[in-house]
């Protein structure tokens, strides 16, 4: 252990710790901008580029960056001297001198770490303002806007995209005022290997990376009297939306969310969870079919079967593992199944053509915007899902409409596409899709009632998890990965012969699953928030009267009246897809 003194406090810390880590141990807050340590998901950004965290170290002439200076025995550190504060203020002013001053209309306003620091240091004037400035043109992808004039070169996005997600879409290029984080050859993000996962947006401290907002398209649809506007809400939204209204992380706001959507004027408030139950029927049937053929000795059967509901993950697979495109389930994601069913089954019930219906999805995810725009999910140019907005955008819409969210009485989803089971809601946390599938596959495979519905062994936030579940005499080996870097590890294992003999794998692009999606309220580096959201999801599951997808009465009805059976010709046509490199 190393003994040091920080601001007069004597402490012992592990060898190799930085001054910043040591300070956190004694509760001393040193401001940072570039630094980000998301230990639980193995993301540590330590590029020491912003220099906001400088401190005085006795015996050293220059100020030292706390995030990159290791402690040594008997070190004496001062974190709040006038020299330190003055240096931090100067650094901030220099940053602001090359930063746009459009905070009033910046999408990150109120959530911007640079704005917070400027306020904290009482900066009221920016010196050094004349002179050269960076001038980049905004880059719009289907899901993300890159406004590089706002980039502070913290490299958090680069670390997230390269080290955690292993996508490699972003890296620092050029020098001086031309320095920027960019796709290769300064291409547009849309033309790069970007998966639209949105994790770079989740960690960007400023307004350089933000979602492509669709709020006003929703308003346009809502005011159009010739349209029937239907909304679906993803499982993870209800576990995080409350944070935008000052509620504790992990507050479940399902009923208030439904009430707010009605106040906004949606004609039907439905639930993506209904389609998650439908996904289990289709994906579960596919897994059952593959397992039965495998048991019978069919060597052509593709195992492990991969889940296919996460669009960031599908994009990653298509661009990085084109040789493995025949192993995922062909089931569309719940978002897309919902759109397809809403514009066929439900539009027919209303006696309206699909073109008269607008389907809006509220998702914790930015890749869902891209997924909704894919050509294969359109019928004669009309998309199954017209507009996708994030949890943050929904909160914004509720605020614009002046709805007092916390005061709303809880309301229930409309029927039939609003009824769902506990199995569907756990889709929102890593491991949930495969747990939901296991509940159904077990009962359909064995013909027996499942006594213990909770499969605790499939839960947790660890990036890669494996478990064996006994179904009759067979051990079904299940793999779970959240975060694309973890997905890559499992996929490389499959390429090299599947040494763990996995039969099914659930993959979610975002660390922690959808609860940690790129469209969720910003966690500002507090990963504990993700755990609380996951707890909320499992609480909702426990509180549901029905907890297995195949027992959802409206799912039974849709098979009886419309789809006939899982994997039927009609199901294939409406609910399945294929992948291309
Ligand atoms: Fe998810 Fe989904 S669980 S991807 O994380 O499967 O976004 O919440 O909506 O579609 O249901 C996101 C969340 C969904 C889909 C569902 C799946
Ligand atoms: Fe990388 Fe995901 Fe950001 Fe795309 S959205 S640049 S894949 S982190």
TrEMBL record:
Presence of keyword 4Fe-4S: yes
A Pfam family per the record:
Fe_hyd_lg_C
Keyword presence, Oxidoreductase? yes
Q: Where is the 4Fe-4S His(Cys)3-ligated-type domain?
A: 83-122
Q: Which residues form the 2Fe-2S ferredoxin-type domain?
A: 1-83
- GO molecular function annotation: 2 iron, 2 sulfur cluster binding; 4 iron, 4 sulfur cluster binding; ferredoxin hydrogenase activity; hydrogen dehydrogenase (NADP+) activity; iron ion binding
Instruction: List the CDD domains.
Output: fer2
Cross-referenced InterPro entries: 2Fe-2S_ferredoxin-like_sf, 2Fe-2S_ferredoxin-type, 4Fe4S_Fe-S-bd, 4Fe4S_Fe_S_CS, Cytosolic_Fe-S_CAF, Fe_hydrogenase, Fe_hydrogenase_lsu_C, Fe_hydrogenase_ssu
PANTHER family registered for this protein in UniProt: NITRATE, FORMATE, IRON DEHYDROGENASE
Q: What name does this protein carry? A: NADP-reducing hydrogenase subunit HndC
Q: Which organism is it from?
A: Alkalithermobacter paradoxus
- Taxonomic lineage of the native organism: Bacteria, Bacillati, Bacillota, Clostridia, Peptostreptococcales
